[in-house]
Amino acid sequence: STRLGETMDALGNAASAARRARTMLLLVWTLLNAVSGLKADDGGMVEELVTEKEAEESHRQDSVNLLTFISLLTLTILTIWLFKHRRVRFLHETGLAMIYGLLVGVILRYGIPATSYHNKTPPSCSLKEGPSSTLLLNISGKFFEYTLKGEINFREIHNVEQNDMLRKVTFDPEVFFNILLPPIIFHAGYSLKKRHFFRNLGSIITYAFLGTAVSCFVIGNLMYGVVKLMRAVGQLTEKFYYTDCLFFGAIISATDPVTVLAIFNELHADGDLYALLFGESVMNDAVAIVLSSSIVAYQPAGANTHMFDASAFFKSVGIFLGIFSGSFVMGAATGVVTALVTKFTKLHCFPLLETALFFLMSWSTFLLAEACGFTGVVAVLFCGITQAHYTSNNLSEESTKRTKQLFEVLHFLAENFIFSYMGLALFTFQKHIFSPIFIIGAFVAIFIGRALNIYPLSFLLNLGRRDKIRGNFQHMMMFAGLRGAMAFALAIRDTATSARQMMFTTTLLIVFFTVWVFGGGTTPMLSWLHIRVGVDPDQDLDGNQDEGQSKTKQESAWLFRLWYTFDHNYLKPILTHSGPPLTSTLPSYCGPLASCLTSPRAYENHEQLRDPDTDLIHNDADLTFTFGDTAITANGASTSRADATGGLGWSTNGKRSGSTSEEALERELDSREQELLSRGTRLVFPMEDHI
User: What cellular component GO annotations does this protein have (predicted)?
Assistant: First the structure.
């Protein structure tokens, strides 16, 4: 029993020791887990701190980049003031912006050391297919997403590409299209000088549409020959198709004579020449972007997608017409909607809200057209023209001033920002391909293309014009074919292939040369070609009429008079507070609808017959009004509505024929006033001279 007791005590002690060991093991395991958790937490905290530091550094870098561009614009503005104060005209503000951009680009390229993210050799992998735009990596159970930035030159993998400043000052091309281009294009349409523009509307459309197409195909075919030459001498090994040459011809055909036009405006050069250059540049920007889109959409059937195919060609033509017409309709429709909103609401009582709505509706036109597959440039251009023609009549006086000044400032800043970025991109853009043969060939091609655009079309237009496009005008238009913001924006939008990169580099050099050389030589060229300066546009219109230099009857007396009559009788009264009441122009059975659409202010406006757009008609016909059932002409004659040429409109030869016509018109108005008042309408005709 004694031994059994000892054995039991030994077993108890062993069990107790086992329990103590088990407890110790559990405690050690718990401590190890705790330490492991602390290490994991420390690693997560370190990772979060690194991420926050990188985010803070990125934010600081972005602020420095924006500050750089703001400093460039500030320096440009101060230099512009100095140049204007000293009356220096050999260099325009856009040229200055490019020079300052070049200087900053040199500093960023060569003055700031590279800061690489990695110092080791990058890992290698082989893929059967090209990389997608997004890459997902699984690292120890954690997934990381990377975005494709593009191909990097191996020689610069630790140098230029990895420099934070150079990488971040290269903007996304969509920034130019969605942010910077809309105010530039809208301002061109909103500030359009309609009198001279519509006097030369037929010629402007001819230069913009037919001339741009001619220039595109001439440049494209010449550059295709240059490409063949480069292949023959071994200077080109990458793919460069005929459609690429046509695409280059389309984007480089977009003229932007901003320097020339600024000097013309400052010197008050001939109004018709200004209108021809301005109208062509505004319209052919729209044509060039739609033409380039049509060329990109050219997809022949079959194995070789770069050979000529008739069905694909006509499909591209249909795409061109569809995109242009759809963009035009969308831009005009947005302007009409804005006009109706400002007419049938009392937003004019709140100028701030009115200006904000006008701004947002105008800008949204561009984005809406792009979202619908159309071209925002065309849409916002015609939106600006529509807003100026209709909506501006409904705005309060304060909002009218605000909108004009707002878009003028935005246009100025956006344009100079783009030109500054051009200078910067010459050194910071990492995909330049400088080909001397291609660059020299491009300069020769655009010169020939411009010549075949201006001179033959001017000859054809002069066959039907009374006011001939004189030889010195043609030479000036040839000289003023500068390239600018639109060509640059179209070229930088796609730089994926070596062909597009070569186009971008060449376009950049062409813009530099034309802005500096041709823009700087504008004033001497005006003097050398004996083009009038110091011309008052209003007196110029009078003088042209006295000399018999009027628009052709096809442009003024027929086409535009039909449009003006319809616009003044129906569109203006529907969309604005101006114009005659619809109760006087619509048939009697439309009375309720006319009363609903006519603004009460139309009855209160004592100068409702005075429409600024009457200045646009210059022909040999008499001034004719149709009001109610009565037509009144400026020579004192009156006819019934059945004998009238239609609608409430006028056509004038620019000046009153004399006091006899005025007295006859006064007598006619006096005799008709009571009859018109009995219909609920007051007729008041201003007798002061207007051109």
Answer: plasma membrane; recycling endosome membrane
What are the residues whose beta carbons fall under 8 Å from the beta carbon of 86, sequence distance 6 or more? Answer: none
Rg (CA), the chain: 35
Q: Number of folded domains in the chain?
A: 1
CATH number for 207: 1.20.1530.20
Give residue for tokens 């002061």.
688
Sign of the dihedral defined by the CA atoms of residues 191, 178, 258, 331, in that order: negative
Say what the pLDDT of residue 300 is: 64
Per-residue pLDDT of 208-241, as tens digits, reads 999 999 999 999 999 999 999 999 998 888 888 8
Q: What is the pLDDT of residue 258?
A: 75
To 5 degrees, how large is the angle CA 336–CA 342–CA 348?
Answer: 155
CB 582 within 8 A of CB 594: yes
pTM, to two decimals: 0.74
d(CA 471, CA 452): 15
* Segment 370-375 mean pLDDT: 90
pLDDT tens-digit map of 81-96:
888 888 776 777 788 8
pLDDT in tens, 546-579: 444 444 444 444 666 777 788 888 888 888 887 7
Distance CA 403, CA 398 (A): 9
Q: How far apart (Å, rounded) are the C-alpha atoms in residues 255 and 690?
A: 34
| Domain assignment of residue 536, yes or no | no
What six digits make up the tokens of 499?
């062909």
Q: Which residues of 556-595 are buried (b: 16+ CB within 10 A; e: fewer)?
A: bbebbbebbbebbbbbbbbbbbbbbbbbbbbeeeeeeebe
pLDDT tens, position by position, 507-533? 999 999 998 888 888 888 888 988 888
283: Cβ–Cβ under 8 A, 6 or more apart, which residues?
Answer: 204, 205, 207, 208, 209
Helices (H), 86-191: 93-110, 164-168, 173-175, 181-190
302-344 confidence digits (pLDDT tens) = 555 556 667 777 888 888 889 999 999 999 999 999 999 998 8
Q: H helices within 131-256, ranges in order?
A: 164-168, 173-175, 181-190, 194-199, 201-205, 212-232, 242-252
Cα distances (Å, whole numbers) of residue 196 to 42, 140, 373, 470, 676: 74, 71, 33, 16, 34
Residue 537 lies inside a defined structural domain of this protein: no
CA distance 573 to 559: 21
Q: For the chain, what is the mean pLDDT?
A: 75
- Residue 265 lies inside a defined structural domain of this protein: yes
Tell whether the torsion through CA atoms of 393, 396, 401 and 406 is positive or negative: negative
Answer yes or no: are the C-beta atoms of 441 and 222 closer than 8 Å: yes
Q: Is 517 contained in some domain?
A: yes
481: tokens are: 């074919």
